[in-house]
Structure formats: structure tokens, C-alpha cells
Design a protein that fits this description.
Elements (H helix, E strand, L loop, with lengths): L3 H5 L1 H16 L9 E2 H12 L6 H8 L3 E3 L10 E4 L2 H10 L4
Antiparallel strand pairs: 1-3, 2-3
Helix pairs in contact: 2-3, 2-5
């Protein structure tokens, strides 16, 4: 089931696209891939010509698309994993963001 918040929020859809796009580009094994705000802002800004606030990633966590990652990486960044990349792919196609 798709949370209705994202169905009505084009910016959230686009942020999810940027997360998925970066995640797909990672050369790591699927279970080791992660995204963070600074990594997804580039693809987002390139595609949509604007920026978004990092709190929107937390919103995607609340909606069940991202999960805060357990990682040994430092630097005070928040890292996230995609909970169900296959479902996200289907949704992105539905929203014409593929």
C-alpha cells in the first residue's frame, strides 16, 4: 500500500527518485548500499533545478521508503537504506520518474 502523503507530494516523489538513482549507481553489493543527503542532492538538483531540505529524507523514513542505516561511516551524516527498491522502481514508473 502506498502512503497517500507521497501520492500528493511531487517533491517527495522526486526525492525518492534521487535516492533510488544514487542507490542504483553504487558499485557495492545491494545489502551494503546506502544514501545520505549530500549524495542525493546532486542528482536531484541536476534533474529538477532546485534543492530540498534534508528533513524530507526523514519524512521518507516515516512513510516506510527509507530506513536509517547501521553504518560505521563517520562524519555526523545520517545514512539510509532503501527498504524495498523493487517497489520503489514500480512507483517511480507510475509517476513517470524512471
Amino acid at each position: 500500500m502506498i502512503p497517500t502523503d507521497i501520492e500528493r507530494d511531487v517533491e517527495l516523489q522526486r526525492i525518492l527518485w534521487a535516492c533510488h538513482e544514487y542507490w542504483r549507481s553504487e558499485p557495492l553489493p545491494i545489502d551494503q548500499r546506502a544514501v545520505c543527503y549530500t549524495w542525493v542532492t546532486g542528482p536531484y538538483e541536476k534533474a529538477f533545478g532546485t534543492q530540498f531540505h534534508q528533513s524530507r529524507l526523514h519524512r521518507l523514513t516515516k512513510l516506510g521508503f527509507l530506513q536509517q542505516a547501521e553504518t560505521s561511516r563517520g562524519g555526523g551524516r545520517h545514512y539510509y537504506t532503501l527498504i524495498n527498491p523493487e517497489e520503489i522502481t514500480v512507483l517511480l514508473k507510475k509517476w513517470n520518474l524512471n
